[in-house]
Give the backbone structure.
Amino acid sequence: MSQAPSRTVVVLAAGEGKRMKSATPKVLQPLLGRTLLGHVLAVAQAIHTDRTLVVVGHKADQVGAYLADAAPEATPVLQAEQNGTGHAVRIALDAAPELTGTVVVLSGDVPLLRPETVEALLSTHERAGAAATVLSAEVAEPGGLGRIVRDKDGNLERIVEQKDASAEERLIREVNSGIYAFDAALLREALGKLSTDNAQGEEYLTDVFGILASQGHPVAIEVAEFAYETLGCNDRAELSRLRVLMRDRVNDGWMRSGVLLLDPATTWIDVTVTLEPDAVVDQNCKLSGSTTVARDAVIGPDTTLIDTTVAEGATVLRTHSIGAQIGPEATVGPFSFLRPGTTLARKSKIGGFVEAKNAELGEGAKVPHLTYVGDATIGPKANIGAGTIFANYDGVRKSRTVVGEAAFVGSDTVLIAPVEVGPGAYVAAGSAIAKDVPAGNLGVTRAQQRNVEGWTARKRPGTASAAAAEAADTTSEQE
Ligand code: UD1
Ligand code: CA
């Protein structure tokens, strides 16, 4: 019985990435919802690899900890000293002596590569019965990269590094992407023959091609359909270019699936986010983490959603939201801040300048203006007046406030938790409520008002206020 040949992915991620000038290793730099390495591991997963080995070296502890958390299926292999890409792959294969079949080599800093492109590489590799196949790219500026040297028939002769290339070879604009497929046994054998007799004194993985070709083994080339997919990055300027390319690709995908993006150039959607057709995103928005946006919801302008769920037909305007659930046809903003545990039921409203945390709003409940709602349950159809503070923290403990169905809290109220305002109860504006207000009661803590007659004339003589008061004063004209 024949089995499908096994596939092993080796990801090269041991380099330092000095030019990033960062305490974070290059492969752990973030790019629209994943690290650079995370994007590469997602490709490895998508091509149904049997096994993924990640060569780590620089800050191996940090990269290893990331792998344990984000990609437990991947096995780190330590390359203590970075003696070149050939050395890195040799160490990976030494750690897996039983490995056979096809070895796919990916680079930890090439995040735009798509699984489809690796599948194309693999099918060329298999169709040609090749010992080794390289993914090449035609680029305008090949500077720094390895060049693909073809013979007069167009077959791969060898790959030459920029630093070792002749002036003539440097004119070649077909470059090595650093992404390959190999036959495991032949790769192992060729790696044993690498020398460090080159401009960088390193074991070059690329030399495997020249070795295999000179032994008469078939070697193949797959030219990438989209050269930009093979771009790596060495510094933050290059990383930001990759981020723009990734943004455009993500946005194109969502627009083609029916999402309306009004200004894709200022819309940043992590690869982990999902949107339904007919969702609308206006300009200057950032959607990240596990955020989801349902159909007919309108987001933005100027909105950040992190790990936020937005249901059908909701509106979220100029808002910063993290860990909130925004219900169907709910409205939020402008200028509001939703924090974790905020849950807004259907048609509820968070208006302008409201901060909410651990707050549940029932169906149709309204918190329209200038309010802090911390640790609260607000019943359906309840209305919270402008300037209300849910005082949830006594300096030691956080406590909860419950506002019942269709209760009405007047403006400038402090609700001092733990406290409950019953269903249909009212609270007078300006109250400080520390005791429960039973259903249908009015809670009021204000002092009685008294007016001091003639105060302005006596205490502020000669002011505009006194003049206005005198003009308005009808009592002296009364006979
Ligand atoms: C390499 C190729 C070059 C190709 C380029 C594409 C070689 C000799 N050259 O160039 O032809 O155009 O990639 O980007 O392979 N790494 C290790 N251990 C090491 C050295 C590197 O894990 O000892 C990792 C790096 O972290 C990186 C990848 O391998 O992820 C490529 O290394 P890098 O130094 O960027 O490759 P170059 O030598 O520039
Ligand atoms: Ca490189």
